[in-house]
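Fold it.
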Amino acid sequence: MKQPVPVFLLLTIALPAIGLAQEAVYTPMTADQRWNDYISGSLLSPSVAFRSLASAAISHVSKDPVQWDQSSRGYFERVGSHWARFAVQGGIHSGLAAALGHDTSYFRAPEKSGWQRTRHALRRTFVTQNREGHTVFDVSQMAGLYGAPMASSLWTPNRHGAFKEGVRAGTFGIGMQAGSNLFKEFGPDIKRAILGK
């Protein structure tokens, strides 16, 4: 069976054509901001807890992995596995981004039209800013999205093998990251419309 080409490899070819420009005003992340971003985005936040519980519920219903039974113990083994995977993903992303001088935060574009904002959110799935404020391919995010599922094969009974699991889950993770970016972009506006503030 032919292996699919990971999306991030295709984008490394396509992104230069999009025009990687310099953003207007940019201040690089500080070490404290990086640390706080890692803690809140990958370890200790309601969002990480929700993602772990929801991902484990999907895995539990689909009996993945089958070696973990359908009891409450099996569910919480899956919760722990997903939580650890998010921590590894964040560690790879944050550590590599710090070494490369890349930003791990999301920047909204509320002044643009709805379509431009959607394009911005989807594009930010694959690009970030370097120390100089130039837009660059987000190598660290892709490494985290594909590397964490491969690493999780160390503690998870895996029927796919580390590489296949990394490609499968990493490509799914790109879609999830795009959805997360759309929520970050439009979530505050939706909240304001609902609450009237």
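The first strand starts at residue 127 and ends at 129.
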